């Protein structure tokens, strides 16, 4: 069923985008916002949100204080009735809907209803949440006079909306209209995409009809489909309160009574059938602003407020990442009527770009049809024809005046093509509305006048704010502008902070070098702008809070402190703590990296000394860390691809992420960090694999190379600290560890050979053992023996033999030879243990990395086996102490026996080196954890059953040992089948128990009947408890333990090899640094070590095989080689990515979609081309027939005929029109469009005067224009004496002598005599749409002087700058507020004066004669009419433009001029500006500058 047609004017509800010339009092009300609740305003920025009740209270108090509604307070009966037939007031409301005061008897004299007098503002009573069938939105009822700043504050602070990056105002038809399904789908998808990707606000009329309904359905489809990434679409509906159907449900009754609460939530139901002349709100909008003027049923009330609100928002500045942009605004037009045309005209007039969707109907199609035509071809007849096609139903309502107005407005709209974009489905390469919208904004920005590169920079900032890298690639990074890398640095910073990796990648492709971009100050700025939700940010805040100087300013050494916690104490600080003499923010430019594949040179590290510490400034590393600590996957990947020490960088990233994941409270974020850590581990493996395949020796050097950039650590050390088991288990690393394990021996030596040589070392000199070095292979002396016994594998096996001998001797002493006085065997054990203590002490104090004693001790005790060693030694000391005391001899033996168990357990660590036993030991360790948790569960059942059994059977057992036996011991043994004999009474025997519990060797008897010698306890209960206990403990729990063991085995078995290879390193490193002699002979090595460290003060050094510091040249060559192979790895990864089945399917799908689009576009092009060719052919055939008819008639008359009858053949226009249609190129305007344009603007500048519309064809006075009736306007001026009369009274005008010198006023025109009609002169250039003199001072020509003062632009060396071979000029310009455009220092001189007023304002008075002298020697470049917005039919400006050029920079007159430039008003600005077509000056002044540039052959 069709809804009832809405009774409203066509211009109402369709508008909403017209921009007022001046903002009213919006900003003046900002101070009133201070009354708002400040705590709520801050809640949007704080980490912890307020409670819902507090928010409710703040919002409920703030809105009534700052936002008002309007109510009619005087009931005046109207002659019209409501739809229900009731008597209504002039405001449209019934008597019942008025306040009580309004319906009381009033003075009968005041019978006329006046909205200004009878409508008053009151606190609003409708705001809060509105619910549409389960969907919740925000709404508020506001007065039409509510300042835009208050509404904006409500939306951003109280509603919590983020400041938009773009404002999209959708306007068009307010009634339902039909669109083609494909066009509707394209529009919906594109609109939502541009809003969602750019973070835009969409503003519409908010009703459930017309274009607003189309927008709502687009948002609905987006929310249901979820086809785009995260982020909701903000859709704001600005509607008229008095036209909303069922608006009563939005008013909360308590608000009207008390004024303290709002409707939370208000339920609203769509009722299109019963809405009548009203309209329903669209349920798919997210927010509503309901504008109230106190009337009912009046449409268009919201248009002024919406206009001001959109303008206010577009004037706000959004800053992100140090880059600030004004919020851009674009108008999107669908369908529409006369009001929509007015909206488009206002938008274009005020510089707002518009996107018109062709095919949507009516106004949109009219504009789209003529948009590509020259202005001279857009005639009244053409517009009338188009209106007849697209406005068939209401065409008869168009008067001649309205058609003229339409023609004038459309001409002005099309004239500013840079602001008008027509979206044609499948044409002009346009496929998506979102691209068309963004291209329209960039095109509009490109057309604006800016100094230098500001125009392109502004476009780039917009693209970054929108996060549309596709637009940046296609529209900004083109051949039209060559970007300097330094120009991209600010936007690069913004892209980094706002996490836009695609833009970072784009900037790197276009010349930005991280080595030049990342300075000390830049890095500090980036850390100051970390995401507040980032864990690293909170850790930095904790570090700053611990600073003694409060409040502390963030410095890089604070960052280094947190990074060292994450990387580990084995690393050096990455950034130094500045000394008092250092700058707090040090900028360190880094030299450019020179890559040489052969490794000849690599300048990559820039060192600076700070005290005793040397640190490395590596910008790529610094930026990588900044991205990693924020868990930014894509950004870190792009930066890592630029790194040089890439393997170490990947391992360091893995370490940082794993450490952060341990502290991260958010589970999802923690999992993302671990996944990213695994990804970087795989990258390290990939690069190392490429290196290992290429050269094993150099790859192994990478493992042990000391990396200055990463805190003087190695790749191997980073991998071990990060527990990157996959990396450590890599074949190349295991081969390296095996080589370290075998020392200088060949790896292929069998263990049996090593064992033989250990037992009979003279075999070393027989060649049984082979060495890696040829020198040792040839030598037969002590060096060969030293190399053999220093090999870790030999040291390990000697220690095994020694340890087994120790255990055997220990067991022999405990079981056979434990005498009251220690025997020699026992003394040998003491000596042996003393050597073990010395070795553990050496390991504790061995600190080659200079970590410090406390950190080294913490590292030592972090190892389980070290804890076991210390425990065994301490237990041995305790046993020895007891053993030496005769009274505790036996206790000492018991303690030593227990200690023997601990020493035997130590064997498990020794066997971890075995490839067979090592993985099994790992499984046993994991299962021990399962046993611990199992015992916890088992203890619950054992204790619960034991206590219950003991309480039921035994009465008041007071012996603690027997309580423990009954509760725990017996219950535990029951699991293994030892069931208590007396639990069921069958085997009850009183002789086996003690009745009173006095026998210490017998348990107390259970409850029994002593007379009958039978048990008295309930046997059925104890048996039932026993069965349940055995069921759960023996069956359930034991099977659970087996299942846990099985799961652990299955889980660990898959990774056992990796775990074993990872833990193998610890054993290898331990024996690599261990003295070669086994205990107890190791005491000799300890004595030597004591002399070296304590007596001779020789510091400890790590062996070069595990940590090697390379020479600079060697390190540079190695890193160059690694970078080269990293590129190979990245290319192989990209190739593998492309070869995946999903990628291939996606690629084929994209190709198919592209082919379908091309075919559709080609079909449209062909059909359009055929239609054009057929039309041209029909025209040619018709003209040919006419020519033939003329020839026949001429021949019939036997003469040559008359020349006037000869038909003129039409030109071939099909190809040109086709090029214009497909390429969208602008034709050269014909001379007919050379009329004045600025002088015909409908809005007269700075005044509320509207000109009569004058289309191009009606400009000449000779052209008949019967309906031409322009208004008369002459402004009052301060200089009334020098001003012509204001009115058009003939008596006053008769005193003026036109076309002559009238006193001090020259009324002669440079274009010759002009006509005078009705006592008023006529503008020689034609009609302007306004009579009178306007704001000019005189009727007729108002003469002006515009001196163009220029000089050559020079560089620092004094040479003249050139562009495109031509020299560049600089011109003197001035800016006088409130105008934002610059101008030439000219204007109309005072009567009798030579210099213009504006020129006098910028020159000192003493220099005026000198400048008059310059004017005498100047060159005239133009004399004549100026197209100025102030011109009228009877007054116009004519100017003389003269050129004053200073050829030499040392010109005396130029120096004198510069010294005398002075502004009396501080708001007036002066500057020398480069002459360019983009210079932001008035359009008519640009024409003068172009003439001057042509005069000197300079660039323009």
Low-pLDDT stretches: 1-53, 255-263, 581-615, 1206-1232
How far apart the termini lie comes to: 63 Å
Could you give the order of strands across the largest sheet?
A: 10-5-6-11-9-8-7-14-15-16
Strand content: 5-15%
Number of strands: 33
Rg over alpha carbons:
47 Å
What summary fits the major beta sheet?
Answer: 10 strands, mixed
The rough form would be described as: elongated
Give the averaged pLDDT, no decimals: 79
- Helical amount among residues, as a percent range? 40-55%
| Secondary-structure content class | alpha/beta
Number of helices: 50
What would your notes on this structure say?
- The protein is α/β, with parallel strands linked by helices and 1500 residues long.
- The protein is built from 50 helices and 33 strands.
- The strands form eleven sheets. A ten-stranded mixed beta sheet has the order 10-5-6-11-9-8-7-14-15-16, sandwiched between helices.
- The two termini are 63 Å apart.
- Mean pLDDT is 79; it is low at 1-53, 255-263, 581-615 and 1206-1232.
